[in-house]
Amino acid sequence: MLKNSQTKLIAPIVTLGLLEAYSSSGRTEFTDADIRSSYEAAVKAMRKFLGHDVHIGARYYDAYGSRMSRYGVLEQTAHLRYRLCDAYRKQAKSLVAWLPSRLREHIDDRLGIVPLLHDSVTRTKLSESMEQFSALIREQIERSPSNFEIFTFAIIKVHLEKFACKIYRDTRTAARDHGVDISTNFGVVYQIKKLKISTEAQVEQLYAELKVNFDRERIHDGSVIVVIDDITKEYKQYLINMKVQSISKDDVLKLAVNFAEAEDRQKILRIIYEEFRREYSSRVD
User: Could you tell me which residues come within 8 angstroms of residue 274 by beta carbon, excluding any fewer than 6 positions away?
Assistant: First the structure.
């Protein structure tokens, strides 16, 4: 369940809600409305337990009941009617006690320090020292493709704003990788890919994808920049010859350590939290 959770934990929290409902009432039969009610109650309880709402609380859909059947949590008895499976009934008490901490551990592993960045005091403390800030960026940007994209965006955004340039994220991290990830008010577009280019086949495949995603004129004008994890000098030059600029993770990290003002570093952390929250925050009232 956890591996299949992209921007929101859904199935694990549906499971938690069903088990809590069973534990408190002994109910084993659930309508779709019952599942929704128990799910939303579990989301609210988890928000209180975690102290934030990042990565939990997707909008409920009636397909969730049948999805839980595939996980072996529920068995369908009629249209939009389900029964809690025996294995989960037998372990309900221990699972209700264990799941909240396990979900918190998963969120911490997946998002790192991001949920804590909602607090301005925390952002201020993390930004006080350049060494502390740069170490945080270096560690967190490696955690996942989502972190790589959003941390990169925040750093480039604050850097370019010093030159009166505006940039905007036009995608979501769980979306399929087609076209623009970042657009600007000066005609340049960025595509972010967490991959390493070290062979001719890899750079040719990357360039072929860019030609599909962007029109020839935009590439010919040098208006496409690709941000990737790493690229050798040879293949960086290959892309330059094809009118495509590339920025590596090391380039991004070098930008990060050039923010001499703590205010800029705080702004980067605020943008990171806001972008994660835009995708990951609760949709349950």
Answer: none
Short-list 152, 156, 128, CA closest to 138: 152
**Residue 32 pLDDT > 60:** yes
- The SS3 call for residue 93 is helix
Q: How many CB atoms lie within 10 A of CB 86?
A: 10
48/178 Cα distance (integer angstroms): 37
3-state secondary structure of 186: coil
Q: Which two tokens stand for residue 154?
A: 């925040």
CB-based contacts of 138, cutoff 8 Å, min separation 6: 253
CA distance 6 to 190: 23
Owner of token pair 């962007």: 214
Q: Which secondary structure element, helix H or strand E, spans residue 75, and what is its range?
A: strand 74-78
Over residues 110-167, the pLDDT tens digits come to 888 888 898 999 999 999 999 999 999 999 998 888 889 999 999 999 999 999 999 9
Bridge partners (DSSP) of residue 226 are 191, 246
> What number of other Cβ atoms are within 10 A of residue 57's Cβ?
24
pLDDT band at 176 (very low <50, low <70, confident <90, very high): very low
Query: Phi/psi of residue 284, each to 5°?
Result: -105, 125
Q: Which domains does the chain have, with CATH numbers?
A: 11-111 (1.10.10.10), 114-280 (3.40.1350)
Residue 204 parent element (H or E): helix 200-213
